[in-house]
Write a structure and sequence with these properties.
This protein folds into two domains: about 90 residues; about 150 residues, Histidine kinase-like ATPase, C-terminal domain (Heat Shock Protein 90, 2-Layer Sandwich), CATH 3.30.565.10. The relative contact order is 0.16. The strands form two sheets. Strands 1-7-8-6-5-3 form a six-stranded mixed sheet. Strands 2-4 form a two-stranded antiparallel ribbon. The chain is globular, with a radius of gyration of 21 Å. About 50% of the residues lie in helices and about 20% in strands. A hairpin with a 5-residue loop joins strand 7 and strand 8. The two termini are about 25 Å apart. The protein is of the alpha+beta class and about 260 residues long. It is built from six helices and eight strands; from the N terminus they run E-H-H-E-H-E-E-H-E-E-H-H-E-E.
């Protein structure tokens, strides 16, 4: 079963308008949340220091509860950061690059985290691929989001393959894991519902952010998955040479 993002022009215009409104509020929201959250976190640290000096059963119970509160504060900070990343991905700065080079750089960057999780990364890179127009920073963020989801789907370790090839005039990058896979319900809501997540500490913003980044590059993203047989995320990008000046993504345009 697969889910693919194909947006009509009117839907894209609606999302652009919606994004502009959300982005305008994001800075103020972050300020309003971060100030009290920082104060709470600081006071929790002070309380932990005080309670850690005690050795009674009551002190140990209080310490466990304080640590729980600290974890929840960290989770709130993660949600806030992911939200800001979603609404303020930034402007795209494009350059003509080799996808394989970008994949190799990402693997070098992500290898330590994968090894710590017991996940082997296996690249299978095609030859003679055409250049594509990419914002390298944003593209790495998209790869990180997909890879992070893959690692979370393989809690006991596994295999993450990265494949590149050219099909029907598009440069394809596929990230394939042999993890738990997704149910039809999860797959259906994957891109459509912001903040939708099946993970206890998930924010539900990782793959919607991937979608926005890929679409800003004139590409498409699709997901094929089923319970027990892993997940395949396919990113399809147009070759740089085949894009006319009018078709090219605007390098100074905020992402929709």
């Amino acid at each position: 079963m697969s889910a693919e993002v194909l947006l009509a022009d009117d839907e894209r215009e609606r999302l652009v308008s919606q994004h502009a409104q959300i982005a305008a509020l994001a800075g103020g929201l972050a300020h309003e949340i971060r100030n009290p959250l920082s104060t709470i976190s600081l006071n929790l640290e002070l309380l932990v220091e005080d309670v850690s000096q005690g050795d009674t059963p009551r002190d140990r119970r209080m310490l466990r509860k304080l640590h729980t509160l600290q974890r929840e504060c960290e989770h709130l900070e993660t949600i806030l950061e992911d939200f800001l990343r979603f609404v303020r991905v930034g402007e795209i700065h494009l350059a003509s690059v080799d996808v394989n080079d970008q994949v190799r750089k990402f693997i070098e960057f992500y290898q330590p985290e994968a090894q710590a999780a017991g996940v082997e990364i296996s690249p299978h890179l095609g030859t003679d691929l055409p250049q594509v127009l990419l914002d390298e920073t944003l593209f790495r963020q998209a790869l990180f989001n997909v890879a992070r989801n893959a690692l979370q789907a393989m809690p006991r370790g596994g295999l993450l393959e990265l494949q590149t090839r050219c099909v029907s005039g598009r440069v394809l990058l596929e990230l394939i894991d042999n993890g738990q896979g997704m149910s039809p319900e999860t797959l259906e809501n994957l891109f459509r519902k912001v903040f939708f997540s099946t993970k206890p500490n998930g924010t539900g913003l990782g793959l919607p952010t991937v979608r926005r980044i890929v679409e800003a590059h004139g590409g498409l993203v699709s997901v094929d998955s089923a319970p027990g047989r892993g997940t395949r995320v396919t990113i399809a990008l147009p070759p740089a040479a085949e894009l006319s000046s009018s078709d090219r993504p605007d390098p100074g345009r905020p992402l929709p």
